Amino acid sequence: MDYKPLKTGNLTAKVPVIQGGMGIGISLGNLAGTVAKVGGIGIISAAQIGFKEADFDQNPEKANLRTIQKEYEKARKIAPDGVIGFNIMVAMRHYEKYVEAAIQAGADLIISGAGLPMDLPKIAGASQVKLAPIVSSEKSVRVIFRYWEKKYKRQPDLVVIEGPLAGGHLGFSVEELEMYEEECGNLCHGSVNSGSENRGKKKYEDEVRKILETVKIYEEKCDHEIPVVLAGGIDDASKVKEAFALGVDGVQVATRFVTTKECDADIRYKQAYLDAKKEDIVIVKSPVGMPGRAILNTFQKKVRAGEKIPHSPCHGCLHKCNPAEIPYCITDALIHAAKGEVEDALLFCGANAYKATKIETVEEVIQDLFKA
């Protein structure tokens, strides 16, 4: 299959792949810059991006805003002509300030999920940055398109669909994830009921087609193309081909880039992926109630047993977090992961993380994903 470049407005990625944003500290300037240099779209995660700064504990907001500029400059130095953007979660405190800082740094693209980015156009204002909401259902994409059109007289420049096989925080309820597991067996997350695999696969493909149909309606209204990118469980060339056969314009891949030489994470984090078995990939509950996918380790076993993990003073990461009530601090757990302290960490991953067998380069991963 021949793949066309991924275009949105004046931005063109020669390879139609977006490297998914992974925080805390997993996709920073080095990974994003290398992906952009190879021809894809490199994405820096803004989530607690300043965790290495000396003043992070005292003033996390200031440290994060400063580091957004630093990591962008690092990526841009690696890929002077590449497409580089940020993933900024709606659920983050100071969301508006982080979006503004990314724009000021020079970001080509802002991808935003973990909530619907209803007022992202207002924050972006008259800047030339491209805006891409993350959606998981036809309903959510319809809500965003209608709202942006009515209130801001604009549409998304690109849409990212994250399916039920994605890693990290997920745009599905626990009940929906259980439904997909029941429907699709080992296509989702660790079930062994492979006999129903095709049925479940078709089920989410139907949702993707509905999203594409809705985007097409708005493309005709605004008389320009709005590319759609599919994410979640895309880890080899066959999955890439299946995605494009549905009619999308590109794919977003995250997990495959963790086990690369250029990934910003500690080598021990990467090794946790290499060591993981299929049954180790589980659905977890974030301290603020959102479901996610991660590797079952000592830390996660303690959480599942109801143990409350002591945490540092609040770093103000998520809107809905109450430090007095949470079983553990997600910032602490993810910083442990980025530093390679894997048994004390929340090890977010995609459904197929267990398939990783070696450390590769970014270029090797992209070549493998898009091989004939």
Automatic annotation (TrEMBL):
Gene3D superfamilies in the cross-refs: Aldolase class I (3.20.20.70)
- A Pfam family: NMO
Which CDD domains does this entry report, sorted A to Z?
NPD_like
Keywords assigned: Flavoprotein, FMN, Monooxygenase, Oxidoreductase
**Domain of life of the native organism:** Bacteria
**InterPro entries membership:** Aldolase_TIM, NMO
SUPFAM superfamilies named in the record: Inosine monophosphate dehydrogenase (IMPDH)
| One function term, GO molecular function aspect | monooxygenase activity
Q: What does this protein do?
A: Nitronate monooxygenase that uses molecular oxygen to catalyze the oxidative denitrification of alkyl nitronates. Acts on propionate 3-nitronate (P3N), the presumed physiological substrate. Probably functions in the detoxification of P3N, a metabolic poison produced by plants and fungi as a defense mechanism.
- Please give the name of this protein: Probable nitronate monooxygenase
